[in-house]
Amino acid sequence: MKDPKDRLDSLRAGIERRNPAQPEFHQAVREVLDTLAPVFRARPEYAVPGLVERLTEPERQIVFRVPWQDDHGTVHVNRGFRVEFNSALGPYKGGLRFHPSVDIGVVKFLGFEQIFKNALTGLGIGGGKGGSDFDPRGRSDAEVMRFCQSFMTELHRHIGEHTDVPAGDIGVGGREIGYLFGQYRRITNRWEAGVLTGKGTGWGGSQIRPQATGYGSVLFAAEMLQRQGLGLDGRSAVVSGSGNVALYTIEKLQKLGAYPITCSDSEGYVVDDKGIDLDLLKQIKEVERGRVGAYAERRGASARFVPGGRVWEVAGEVAFPSATQNELGADDARALIASGVKAVSEGANMPTTPEAVRLFQEAGVAFGPGKAANAGGVAVSALEMSQNAARSAWTSQRVEEELAGIMRDIHQVCHETAERYGAPGDYVTGANIAGFERVADAMLAQGVI
Ligand code: GLU
């Protein structure tokens, strides 16, 4: 029989040929397939022809027109996407991203990652993702509402609490979920709370959902450090981004006694020697929907804004890439390693380039891949679905306890799986194989579909 490594390489080449001009999707697929050879050797049942081919081909891809009018009456046309990637473990589940960079390749990379991430939560959710190349920045509330209504006017026929359950991602937060939910309810005439997650807590949303991704990413880092006999208390932390993930990463770090000193956006980064003032940052980002440059202006002498700079040039003991894909490259990794970084936890999806991941691993830096480290967000989304199904609402304390338990379990399964396959301490291999095993077992049991 062909060596699994050669077989996986030739499968990958075929996938790249079949899906041209989708570099992020190729990267996400390669990153998974590159770690699967040991499991194929140990468990030949996975080597059946067609399994990897099915896993890398979405069950369904929906692309649609989203026309909408701005406040001056001008018509704009955006493109909407929903990729329903894999439903072996449960209804398709994954966020919607509104950002000019969104195309089918980006949505497929996110959807593909989501399959394994969701499997790692152990909560019975399949993988999907969607979004649009719409840019919400600078748009009024009324424009965002009209866009969301138009987007949902098409999307509603494809989703449902037992079919496909979207949520937020970059550019889609509580405001957008509200407009999307309202339009779904209006069109369908159903109070179907479980069709979207990330809802407001007054109308079916879960406590702690906005915090969950950031909190979970910090908990994952704490678990990785604990394995090395270290803690977070007193450690300096470099965080990128200033969206929902970054804000609640900073919040949890502060609660655990760490010292986050940075945040960033596409225009540059802020470094604050006194540590980030979270109330000020929340005011600017969540209330005013402003930029991080304004933080430095208002904070006083301890903070400065570095326009166009890369946040990874700031020394820190733990790093949390929490902005977007491929934001941390090889040079950034070298700078972080030179500054003595001990752990990196991916709050964003695929923020670290493959070369940078390799550098961290070779340097012995604990590296938590997004599939594991940022799974807290979708995990609490699944808890929101449970609450909706039972028409109940759990306390913050209960949700936080569940989240902490889930992150501990994810860390544990990644760690054990890596050891079992001869790669101790390699959370990338552990996460990919553990996620793969769960999905592959379900797919094999359910036949060729
Ligand atoms: N967009 C988030 C993620 O990347 C959350 C998805 C969800 O809650 O469904 O996992």
TrEMBL record:
Oxidoreductase is among the record's keywords: yes
Highest taxon in the source lineage: Bacteria
Domain Glutamate/phenylalanine/leucine/valine/L-tryptophan dehydrogenase C-terminal: 206-447
Record bears the keyword Cell inner membrane: no
Sample GO molecular function, one term: glutamate dehydrogenase (NADP+) activity
InterPro entries in UniProt: Aminoacid_DH-like_N_sf, Glu/Leu/Phe/Val/Trp_DH, Glu/Leu/Phe/Val/Trp_DH_C, Glu/Leu/Phe/Val/Trp_DH_dimer, Glu/Leu/Phe/Val_DH_AS, Glu_DH, Glu_Leu_Phe_Val_DH, NAD(P)-bd_dom_sf
Residue ranges that the Swiss-Prot or TrEMBL entry lists as coiled coil: none
Pfam families: ELFV_dehydrog (PF00208), ELFV_dehydrog_N (PF02812)
Family, as annotated: Belongs to the Glu/Leu/Phe/Val dehydrogenases family.
Subunit: Homohexamer.
Name used for this protein in its record: Glutamate dehydrogenase
Organism for this UniProt entry: Streptomyces bambusae
